[in-house]
Design brief:
Chain A: This is Putative CRISPR-associated protein. The complex is a heterodimer. Chain A is α+β, with helices and mostly antiparallel strands. Chain A has six helices and eleven strands. In chain A, helix 1 packs across helix 2. The relative contact order of chain A is 0.19. In chain B, strands 1, 2, 3, 4, 7, 8, 9, 10 and 11 form a nine-stranded mixed β-sheet that branches. In chain B, strands 5-6 form a two-stranded antiparallel ribbon. Chain B contains five helices and eleven strands. Chain B is α+β, with helices and mostly antiparallel strands. Chain B is globular and about 95 Å long. Classes of the chains: A alpha+beta, B alpha+beta. Chains A and B meet through strand 4, strand 5 and strand 11 of A and loops of B.
Chain lengths: 255, 277
């Protein structure tokens, strides 16, 4: 049984500042909310800071979690209202069907792999042996590349992003030979580069993230279910890869 | 006013949609400054109908002046000031009002080379004008407007109307009802803006109706307009007055009624909305 939780974070407390600044610290706090973890369990989380003074932590856990420790350290323990909300995720999984449309939000870490990197950072001068025969994983750092990374992979995750409704350009304003690719119903609302160190290592972990928002149309419910439960892209421990669905704006409840 | 003299059955209402890039309805302007009123004047509408009917300037206007006029402001438009200069192309000084012994205008002294005039226009305005009168006359005028004898203009010869000009003749309906029942004639951007505002919960609360300003000829009205033409003869021009009543009409827009939607709770994206909340 999968549960989606929403925890409100008080950004003025000392513990919250550590959590908000360091994805590794927040990863630890999230892991501490689930008592029994099987080896294959995947906990996904995301920090929504679209309201900077009321950040919200969204967590998808395989079992029922408890967030008392987060509320005590980084919330408003005595305040009114709901400190955290935990809901069963199966109503959403049950309504996934071919052709349905939802609004989505995803914070991901778009990366590419290459065996012949250019540039001279210390990481790239390591030998293949030191990297355990793995190719070099490099982040996509421009918005155009991040968007292309996302749109290239949507069918693999079981959905498509419909074309954006745009007006036809006035005569003479459009490009002469077609527009190339049509615009899609997706935009990048936030881009970030986070650096933090892990104890015992001197090389910092660098995380390049992009937050995508838009509309999706389900093309394969099973693939989408997998993407929802197991996450999208790398850096899932550090707040990337949790895809959340919501009703499309303007359509009421969309149930 | 002859509104109550004839039974309702013999009367008809002609609906005109006055819209165009520019309109200008002057009522008391003279010389170098030509104003426009925010609504069509009776002299402008009567002139348009007389031109459509092919009446010469000297013709009698009593039957047209006797028509009852109602104006609805579908789209108020904005005011445009045209800064306009007049000079003699030969570089001579402009003539003055006085004449010499031969009856020829004298040049201005000290010499003046340029007249500056201001002409005011309404741009992007749409009005619905209703004319009520004897069915026979109104029907004939409705025919004439579709096949005008002289070119029609919106208050000034440079302001051409856009189609459709005539929305037809309504029989057996009073002027107020005809104006209130006719759908909103505003253009697409205005309709979109109205819909957006209503959905955002701003001033107009509903998309399916809109409140529009209107004014009617009414002997008990509390406003006086000096725009009743006595004659369009260039040598005997003159204007009388009429009493006008101002009102608001609730008019169907032709848009769908908006669903009562609530603003989204958290930044527009609430994953919990799909989990049975």
């Amino acid at each position: 049984m999968t549960y989606l939780s929403r925890v409100r974070i008080n950004p003025l407390r000392a513990a919250s500042r550590t959590l908000l600044a360091n994805p590794r610290a927040l990863h630890g706090a999230v892991q501490a909310g689930v008592p029994d973890q099987a080896p294959g369990d995947r906990i996904l989380w995301r920090l929504d800071t679209d309201q900077p003074r009321r950040p919200q932590l969204l967590v998808l856990t395989p079992g029922k979690p408890d967030w008392t420790h987060l509320v005590e350290q980084a919330g408003w323990p005595d305040a009114e209202g709901e400190h955290y909300a935990v809901r069963d995720y199966s109503p959403l999984l049950a309504q996934l069907a071919l052709g349905r449309e939802y609004a989505f939000r995803l914070t991901a870490s778009p990366v590419q792999n290459t065996s012949k990197p250019t540039g001279g950072s210390t990481h790239r001068t390591r030998t293949a042996e030191e990297l355990q025969h793995r190719s070099y994983r490099l982040p996509h750092r421009t918005a155009a590349h991040q968007l292309a990374w996302f749109l290239d992979r949507t069918t693999r995750w079981g959905f498509t992003v419909p074309e954006a409704r745009t007006d036809t350009p006035a005569p003479g304003l459009g490009t002469p030979d077609g527009d190339g690719e049509a615009a899609r119903e997706v935009r990048i609302t936030d881009r970030d580069r986070r650096t933090f160190t892990k104890p015992g290592t001197r090389t910092p972990v660098t995380l390049t993230t992009a937050t995508f928002e838009g509309h999706l149309r389900i093309s394969d419910p099973d693939l989408l279910k997998t993407a929802l439960l197991e996450g999208i892209g790398p850096s899932k421990a550090y707040g990337c890869g949790l895809l959340t669905l919501a009703p499309l704006p303007g359509t009421g409840t969309a149930r | 006013m002859p509104a109550d003299t004839t039974p309702q059955g013999d009367r008809a209402v002609l609906l005109l949609r006055l819209a165009g890039p520019l309109q200008s309805w002057g009522d008391r302007s003279a010389f170098n400054r030509r104003d426009t009123t925010p609504q069509p004047t009776k002299s402008g509408v009567v002139g348009l109908l007389a031109a459509a009917a092919g009446r010469p300037r000297e013709a009698d206007l009593t039957d047209l002046v006797g028509l009852r006029l109602g104006v609805r402001v579908d789209q108020p438009g904005t005011l445009l000031r045209d800064y306009h200069t007049v000079s003699d192309y030969r570089g001579l000084p402009l003539p003055q009002a006085g004449v010499n012994a031969k009856g020829v205008q004298k040049p201005t002294s000290p010499s003046k080379h340029t007249h500056v005039t201001h002409r005011y226009y309404l741009q992007d305005a749409v009005f619905l004008v209703a004319v009520e009168g004897p069915a026979e006359l109104v029907t004939a005028l409705g025919e004439a407007v579709t096949r005008p004898a002289f070119p029609l203009a919106l208050g000034r010869r440079s302001c051409t109307p856009t189609q459709p000009l005539s929305l037809g003749v309504r029989r057996g309906t009073p002027l107020e009802t005809a104006l209130a029942e006719e759908p909103w004639q505003a253009n697409e951007p205005t309709r979109k803006a109205h819909e957006r505002q209503a959905k955002r919960g701003q001033a107009p609360r509903r998309t399916d109706r809109v409140d529009l300003a209107a004014s009617f000829d009414d002997p008990h009205g509390d406003d006086t307009c000096r725009d009743v033409p006595l004659s369009f003869d260039p040598r005997r021009r003159g204007f009388g007055t009429r009493k006008v009543r101002h009102a608001w009409l609730s008019v169907p827009t032709g848009l769908r009624a908006a669903l009562p939607t609530e603003p989204p709770a958290d930044g527009g994206h609430d994953p919990f909305a799909l989990l049975g909340w």
